[in-house]
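Morning run. Coffee first, then this:
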Amino acid sequence: MHPDDAAMAARLGADGVIVSNHGGRQIDGSASPIDVLPAIADAVPHTVVMMDSGIRRGTDVLKALSQRARYVFNGRSFNYAATVAGTQGVRHAISLLRAEVIVTWCISASIVSRKRMLRSSGADSAKGRHHPLRKI
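And here it is:
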């Protein structure tokens, strides 16, 4: 959970590091893995960085990936699903998480694309001129 620890692991030959605070959620004020992830990724640019902890939905997965996690782990949701409905529950949980990732990714890509199109189109609302793409 600290960039120096990740750097030491990389120097000692670790192929990757997992950013996780297993058990830390019980301690008020402990760092959140998503908050320290960028600094850790900066500290070990040639090492695979993975994240575990706090992943509950597709938006959490994409947040971690956007902060340069190469892999994202989620165990709790699948443990709950297995407890309630066995293998079928886990399959259902996987399909829900997958759908959330896809929908969120598509929405995010649409928003970014729209902003890029507006920027490159020369739309200038401050002068009262509007490009047709502004209404998309």
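Residues 124-136 have pLDDT under 50 and may be disordered. Good start to the day.
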